Amino acid sequence: MYLTPYKSLSPRLTGLALLLVAAGAMAQPIYRNVDKNGKVTFSDRAPAASTEPAAGPQGAATPANTAGLPYELRQVAQRYPVTLYTSEDCAPCSAARTLLTTRGVPFEERTVKSNEEIEALQRLSSQSSLPLLTIGSQQLKGYGDAEWSQYLDAAGYPKSNSLPAGYRNAPARPLIAAQQAAPAPRAAAPVAQPAPPPAAPSDPGAGNPAGIKF
Q: Do residues 163 and 69 touch, judged by C-beta distance below 8 A?
């Protein structure tokens, strides 16, 4: 039997094979991995078969607005809370907010404005660009519709809006809570000065032998 050498394949067939390989790579699923400490990460690599399931991350921040949500959505939001970090005049931030709102993802929004908040963002994500999205302990830097949707799917968020009618996310809050100014100290009350003692009677002296006082 005669086998056609690989190099003799036509350019058209070779291009088709490469196209199929590229398409397969783009459709690669995202897997959710939970380690023994409960830390959750998302990757394109399937978890090892020996990996033991772990409980949700301990101490993870839980949005304060999960009351009234459908049971399954509430469980996902408590297990993998979503936080969006934004700033003013940021078009990608607006697009990110629209994606989460349209999909019905309950999330907290933190705004970054002051220099102190920029430094806090750098400590959090090792960068100062926005938007930044966190899903549990997973960080997504920079907005990407397809990428963000993949990670939300992997976390278990519904693909369509299942929020109850009238549900609203909490208003955006600064990344660093404003500290209340300490009240100004009250001025000390003036200390009453003692009244001067009465003047001693003047000495009449030799020029006033009668001791007359004016």
A: yes
Count of Cβ atoms closer than 10 Å to residue 84 Cβ:
24
Radius of gyration (C-alpha) of the chain in whole angstroms: 36
Predicted structure pTM score = 0.58
CB contact set of 83 (below 8 Å; sequence gap of 6+): 61, 107, 108, 109, 110, 133, 134
For range 119-140, the mean pLDDT: 94
- Give 10-50 pLDDT, tens digit per residue: 444 344 344 333 444 444 566 556 555 545 455 666 655 44
The three-point CA angle 32-36-42 to 5° equals 20
Cβ atoms of 74 and 137 within 8 Å: the answer is no
Q: Domain spans of the chain?
A: 71-177
Residue 42, H or E segment: strand 40-43
The CATH number of domain 71-177, selected from 3.10.400.10, 3.40.190.10, 3.40.30.10, 3.40.50.720: 3.40.30.10
Query: What is the rounded average pLDDT of the residues 164-171?
Result: 89
